[in-house]
Amino acid sequence: MDMYILSTLLASLAIFPLVLKVFYPYFWEDLAYLLNLLWILLKFGKRRRRKPLFLVLDRYFEQTTGHPDRPFVVFEDQSFSYRDADKRSNRIANALQKHGNFVKGDTVALYMGNEPAFIFTWLALAKLGCPVALLNNNIKSKSLLHCFSCCGAKLLIAAAELQGAVEEILPSLQEQGVSVFIMAQGCSRAGVESLLDLAEGAEDQPVPPALREHVTFKSPAVYIYTSGTTGLPKAALINQDRLLAAMALLASNGVTASDVVYLNLPLYHAAGFVIGFICSIETGSTIILRRKFSASQFWDDCRKHNVTVIQYIGEVLRYLVNTPGRHNDRDHNVRLAIGNGVRADVWRDFLERFGNIQVREFYAATEGNVGFVNYTGKIGAVGRVNYFHRKIFPYSLIKYNAEREEPVRDHRGLCVEAAIGETGLLVSRITKIAPFVGYARNDQQTEKKRLRDVFQKGDLYFNSGDLLRIDQHNFIYFQDRVGDTFRWKGENVATTEVSDVLAMAECIQEANVYGVKVSGHEGRIGMAAVTLKEGAQFDPIGTCSQVTSYLPAYARPRFIRIQDSLEITGTFKQMKVKLVEEGFSPDTVSDPLYFLDEKEKSYVPMTRQIYNSIESKDIKL
């Protein structure tokens, strides 16, 4: 009898792995993820209980104390250790404390591209207890002034090469009593001071902790701009609590102090700033910082610096796949690629060409309160859902009416959950664990992201504005964005802002801006349907000059169609669905149609030949 029981147990153990593989193929990955999630929550909870408060800056101090000589930032031919960065940031902090016209707790706007001074300056401001608004270094004029003003900043720090853009809005800044510093040697412009000169003359002694004693977990840490669904860019408020929690992303994916992280995404973006910079502070890794992404030099940089971890947005991997093949494509040490927005076909091509790299696709929004991680490597998915994750961060996909641009509601006025395999709007319940702080000085837009009476009267959810789908195997896939935003070149573009710029052209009466799909490209490229002023002719050169002067490259509408009138809904909203479906093909668009030819510096008539060249990728967009 004992032998029978023993034999049965041994047989059961022998077939157990087979049962798991057949019926629960992701059992071990799911278990590892849940344990990892538990570890993060426990670690975060322990840090939140520390006295005095433990913030991101304190983790940096730990790394500096424990590994002062470890390379922290490598940029071009320069290398800065954790100690170097600490001393340089101390000089900047001491200079600002002495010469900056602000009080503790005031917001400071940082208007810089990717360079070590960005990191040193942010550390300096954190030491002074100042929230930092991260301005997109591509914006100028009206957009720059708007972004600066909407976060209530009292001081502006800009890179040397952006001095011209700053001087353009300087009169407005001076009217607001704003102090302006340029990270350059010598500055002869009245009202602008050289922060570089002041920092070089300052001491590198630590800044007194008393200067940040006012900081709490709810205090703003950074403002990261997102175009959202309407209007000009909005400043998403990231408080100290959330920034501390976000530090775990790289560590939770196995990144350690021995890793070398390649950071070529903009530091003003959540991806570059939080994942590339802040998360590297947590792990104690070395950052290889680059001014801009370069597909042709990407792998040479990785080989030169022994990079082990790379970041991406979907376009980055596509650009890499589209570069000419080399004999040493697999000659590198990269083991992990982490990011979001990669298409399934690009994902496959990337692995086939560059080798066995673990791709960790994730879904998150700068201001959102829920995220997903594809920890299994399932190609095409942005994450995997499970019961426990949903209990901690309650979310759902609800049916959405794209024509009316609103959730579908039943006879009780409540939302309807999308079925498995059906595309739905992602909403996430707002709780203490998953809060939604909103946008700085923009209660109207903050309220628009709150969705009430979702599954019961009185409940409150965050409206992501994203359409996703969950399959029968619990993998979740990103489908599209809703509202007045499209994404191109890894950037969110607010259609209202582009419309306003087009309407400033002398010949244009009104513009309806939207994004259209282009074969073989991620996201949607800008297109506009416009009406002309009475008696006016379309001015292709003047309109081109208008959009290139006031819009960054990724936001410029590449196609314009001229209409007699713009179709609107009964509530006076511009209709976009039909326009999006018709796209930019001269075969489907009967209206006069133009293409932005950057070489000619003009909009030129759209022809079948141009269309074919775009489809064949002979014309680069």
Concise overview:
GO terms for molecular function: long-chain fatty acid transmembrane transporter activity; long-chain fatty acid-CoA ligase activity; nucleotide binding. The protein has 621 residues and is of the alpha/beta class.
Helices and strands, with pairings:
Layout: H1 2-23, H2 27-48, H3 56-66, E1 71-75, E2 78-81, H4 82-99, E3 108-111, H5 116-127, E4 132-134, H6 141-150, E5 155-159, H7 163-175, E6 179-183, E7 192-194, H8 195-200, E8 220-226, E9 234-239, H9 240-246, H10 248-251, E10 260-263, H11 270-283, E11 286-289, H12 298-304, E12 309-313, H13 314-322, E13 336-340, H14 344-354, E14 358-363, E15 372-373, E16 383-384, H15 387-392, E17 395-398, E18 400-401, E19 406-407, E20 424-429, H16 443-448, E21 450-452, E22 460-470, E23 475-481, E24 485-488, E25 491-494, H17 495-503, E26 508-516, E27 525-532, H18 540-550, E28 559-562, H19 577-582, E29 593-597, E30 602-605, H20 608-615
Parallel strand pairs: 1-11, 3-4, 3-5, 4-8, 5-6, 6-7, 10-11, 10-12, 12-13, 13-14, 27-28
Antiparallel strand pairs: 1-2, 8-9, 14-15, 16-23, 17-20, 18-19, 20-22, 21-22, 22-23, 24-25, 26-27, 28-29, 29-30
